[in-house]
Amino acid sequence: MLGPVLLAAARSDSIRRVVAAAPVTRPVVDRFVAGEHLDESMAAVRNLAARGMEVTLDYLGEDITDPSEARRNRDAYLQLAVALKELGLGAKAEMSVKLSAFGQALPGGHDLALRNVTPVVEAAAEAGTTVTLDMEDHTTVDSTLAILGTLRERFPQTGAVLQSYLFRTEDDCHALAGEGSRVRLVKGAYKEPATVAFQGKREVDRAYVRCLKILMAGKGYPMVGSHDPRMVAIAQELAHRSGRKPADYEFQMLFGIREAEQRRLVEEGHRMRVYIPYGTDWYGYFMRRLAERPANLAFFLRSLATRG
Question: Count of CB atoms within 10 A of residue 302's CB?
């Protein structure tokens, strides 16, 4: 029952201040966030690339209240694209963006987000890489998929994230399972009402498998976003049944989570992409990581007890 509490805390400014001020917080956050600055994230990219892994980079800045902040986030991604190009890392690193960071939740947010994300997708293409649109709460799905459709007219390699816990996601998987489409399938990490999303783990897992079957049987490129050993094994079996080779799909896991499993999959010849967040606005991301898995919360609490 702690998951919903932590997700609610992710939106609380007062709890944000307490957590950010705690001496133990920074060392624990470092497990899940590559750093606050671009050079720190590039160091993480080079480190993982040397281990045979690929990455996707997320500049943390989703909770904005002003168009100027959206432009700041846009500019941070433009700087990231330049760095990837200059360092020759485009083949190893793509970019993940949350459209809320580009103003999606502000007045006129759909058009504002599209205007801000378009130059980022253009810059990514120039750097030899691409962009995946992260999915947020259910109220943003239609806008996000509409922006995806617009971007794919010029940049068909642009990807999207779908969340299996939403009732609608099987239909969305069918719509995005076509040639050239790139879809990262995750279970979902936002607190959603029972009117739009499955609430129990078993239901969410079953929905994940149903969605994965659709994507693996389609003509697109599935990206399996899961740390669940059972889902990883099911994905491998479904890929085999669909005649997919390791280059025809990939696994994605979060920076700092199940690192031994990440290495194992690479050693077995699978494509592994690590999701690397960086930036100063780490609080919401950090709280969702604690909410997702009891092991993450236990790690944090053990650190509190040890340093206390």
Answer: 11
What does the block give as tokens for 60? 């943390």
Compute φ and ψ for 104, nearest 5 degrees: -60, -35
pLDDT at 203: 96
Angstrom distance (rounded) from CA 55 to CA 104:
25
| Tokens describing residue 101 | 């960071």
Write out the two tokens for 130: 């691409």
Neighbours of 69 (CB within 10 A): 17
Q: Specify the 3-state DSSP secondary structure of 68.
A: helix
Total length of the chain:
308
The residue annotated as part of the active site, out of 16, 74, 134, 137, is: 134
Could you tell me where the DSSP H helices lie in the chain? Answer: 2-9, 13-21, 25-32, 38-50, 67-86, 109-126, 141-154, 169-175, 201-217, 229-241, 259-267, 283-292, 294-307
Q: For 298-307, what is the mean pLDDT? A: 51
Q: Is the pLDDT of residue 13 over 80?
A: no
Asked about 172 being catalytic, the answer comes back as no
The token duo for 180 is: 């050239």
CB 116 within 8 A of CB 70: yes
10 pLDDT band, cuts 50/70/90, is very low
pLDDT recorded at residue 27: 64
Set 152, 184, 271, 288: catalytic member:
184
What pLDDT digit, counting tens, does each position of 140-177 carry?
A: 999 999 999 999 999 999 999 999 999 999 999 999 99
Tell me how far apart the alpha carbons of residues 262 and 174 are, in angstroms, rounded to a whole number. 28
**Catalytic (active site) residue 228:** no
Mean pLDDT (whole number) for 226-233: 94
